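Morning. Coffee machine broken again, so started the prediction first thing and wrote up yesterday's gels while waiting. Chain of 342 residues, entered below exactly as on the submission form.
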Amino acid sequence: MNQFKKIASAALALTMALSLAACGQNNAASSTSSGSASASAGNPYKIGLLQYGQHPSLDNCRKGFLEGLKEAGLTEGTDFTVDYQNAGFDDNVDSQIAAKFSSDNVDMMVAVATPSAVHCFAAAEDKNIPVIFTAVSDPAQAGLDKGNITGTSDALPVDAQLQLIRALQPAAKTIGIIYTTSEPNSVSTIAQYKEKASSYGFTIDAVGVTAQSEVTQAVDTLISHKVDCFSNLTDNNVVGVLSAVLEKTNEAAIPVYGSEVEQVKNGCVAAAGIDYYKLGIQTGMMAAKVITGETTCDQLPYETITEYGTYINSDALNAMGITVPDNIAKNAVEASSVETAA
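Came back before lunch.
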């Protein structure tokens, strides 16, 4: 009888051990199957956030993204954590950071600007990690419109910008534009400028660069060509050294038009452009839907911001001797009055 009890006890212990092991495996599997499961198990959703470089436009995207998650009801530290990395406009560093996110098995990669989006998507693809991008002007051109990826496009209102330049400089003939030849956003937008410019009586003098170090030389080239003004894109290499660009153009008394509010705040005369903080909020709201399991990236088409404003810098305009027509002035916003999160 005692021997029988020993055998029965041993069998019961083995059964319990196997049951606990199976339970543990099920819990482990459920914790990685979706963001909501991870959070409910007490493990915050891990976001790897890669920003291509630091300038106000991209900074506003990042800040807006975090605000969007907050507005969606998610709390940092409880529902999600963020590993924020900045590539410093270096493509090799950009690629290395994306690969590190993949090896760290983050639950989501968030990319600010096209180069970072391309690198994150490449690093995430084998593991099917969802990728959310922002500040990508032409997702299709960059190959970011299919797969486990979505986000927001900052496609520029080219017609509105050309109309604004014509209104402020009625006699202008040539617009100078500097762009990075390897950045799909810029290549795509240059093509739009060239296609549309003649309808507004302009020609486009475009100079391509391959690195940020070439931008100021390109400025000198366009000044020597006697362009009537410059129009910036959302080109990261150009915007990253905007102060150096403006130093040269101000000395030559050539106005520079920005592509969004921060560029106008920093000294461009005006812009028909978007608010990148709002773009970031829109991106964060989309990411929240993926994190909570409401949808997946491949079921959520990327969104293009459609609202844009006319921003002016009165000091810069006055320095260039440009008067804003009444019909523009009544709807324009002084850039210095536009506030974003600190």
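The radius of gyration is 25 Å. Going to sketch it on the whiteboard this afternoon.
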